[in-house]
Please model this.
Amino acid sequence: MPNQVFCDIGSVTSILSLYISIIVVVVITIYALFDIKRIIVKYVLTLLLLLLAIFNYSYIYIVSTKAVLCNPQYEITILPLVILEKTDLGGVVYPDLGQISIILLFILWLGEIKKLIKHRQVESESIVYTDTIETSQSS
Model:
């Protein structure tokens, strides 16, 4: 029989769940009330979304490692955008906030990513162009 003290994961997971809930509410509020194009808002949202992913996967890690030791029939599966938890009594499916927050980060910074890629392409094309001019002039 597993140690009941070791199997009690309530306090840590409750705190992480609370933090996750607060971050989700704050992210939604910031998105609804502020202009996303302002850089400070982007940085705050980036920090909050990264914290959300970290807390989400910390919660999953703690629950999965302790639950497997306490209940061998416990199984957790991370699928695209959802998490599936199964026990001998049943299962539950819920959204994977870690993956969702990473997708939101990508969408949030998509304009800057496109500009960076375009800038790199222009730099590489100009380097190739100047190299061809120099080699043709030296001939």
